[in-house]
UniProtKB/TrEMBL annotation:
Catalyzes the isomerization of 5-dehydro-4-deoxy-D-glucuronate to 3-deoxy-D-glycero-2,5-hexodiulosonate. This is 4-deoxy-L-threo-5-hexosulose-uronate ketol-isomerase. The gene is kduI. The keyword Metal-binding applies. InterPro entries: KduI, KduI/IolB_isomerase, KduI_N, RmlC-like_jellyroll, RmlC_Cupin_sf.
Length: 280
């Protein structure tokens, strides 16, 4: 398996506000996370979050993961969460196999040494979307099926933001050191996500947008409330959201996204709401 590792350094908002569209994409958008037979990874300097996508097309894809973080093994001082957005597959962690159907999740605790990824059908491979952050303690690894995630019904069709939010890695589901991870799916006829906008200066966030038709896209808004920029996001592309940035958007139709956070706390409601009138 080919492992492709890139690094994204932290950017100050005063820099981002002078960037071109191309510059913004280079610093905040991850365009190709799912390439058959490869592990695509981006090591970020936002709370040391590692964002990766694995698309296994042969048995036992794994090994050499330590190179992602310069340790003896990937989770020597880290924890990992993932959600499968592709076909059915398996993750084998220290000899234990976890079968994952589409939209199933998995948490691997600090100290897990050997990790391998497999697809049940290489012609319709699994697509494991991975987030990993530094850890300070070891919590038990655990499968989190789609039915185990906590469902929240949010928004309203009158404001075009009716959606279901599913919490996978959350204190009410299982203990983690700092990772929060979940999935939001817009209902037909709704396009807005995460509005009203908010900030959480104590945590970074990453979005993976998916279930976007070929000729559709999402306009992701980022930046300080009084100096917003936009990014055009296609299917299975991810966005890094620094603590100083809002993170919301609207699509040309319904879509889904996986959100993840790392930082000082695990309080999902720890956010600073932004007055809609202040957005510019």
């Amino acid at each position: 398996m080919t492992i492709d590792v890139r690094t994204r350094h932290a950017v100050h908002y005063s820099q981002s506000e002078r960037m071109t569209s191309e510059d913004l994409r280079e610093n905040f958008v991850i365009e190709n996370l799912f390439v058959a037979g490869t592990l695509q990874a981006v090591y970020t300097h936002y709370d040391r979050m590692l964002v990766a996508g694995v698309t296994p097309t042969q048995d036992g894809v794994g090994g050499e993961l330590a190179k992602l973080v310069g340790a003896d093994y990937l989770l020597e001082r880290r924890e990992l969460g993932l959600i499968n957005i592709g076909g059915s597959g398996r993750v084998i962690a220290d000899g234990r196999a976890y079968a994952l159907q589409p939209m199933d999740g998995l948490y691997l605790g600090m100290g897990t040494k050997e990790i391998f990824f497999e697809s049940d059908n290489p012609s319709a491979p699994a697509k494991f979307y991975i987030n990993s952050a530094p850890a300070h303690a070891t919590f038990p690894s655990r499968f989190v099926g789609s039915a185990e995630a906590i469902e929240n019904n949010l928004g309203d069709s009158a404001t075009s933001n009716k959606r279901k939010l599913y919490q996978y890695l959350h204190p009410k589901v299982l203990p983690t050191c700092q990772l929060l991870m979940g999935l939001t799916r817009l209902e037909t006829g709704s396009v807005w996500n995460t509005m009203p906008a908010h900030l959480h200066d104590r945590r970074m966030e990453a979005y993976l947008y998916f279930e976007i038709p070929e000729n559709a896209f999402v306009v992701h808004l980022m930046g300080r409330p009084a100096a917003t920029n936009h990014l055009i996001i296609r299917n299975e592309q991810a966005v890094l959201s620094p603590p100083w940035s809002i993170h919301c958007g609207a699509g040309t139709g319904a879509y889904a996204f996986i959100w993840s956070m790392a930082g000082d706390n695990q309080s999902f409601t720890d956010m600073d709401m932004v007055d809609m009138k202040s957005l510019k």
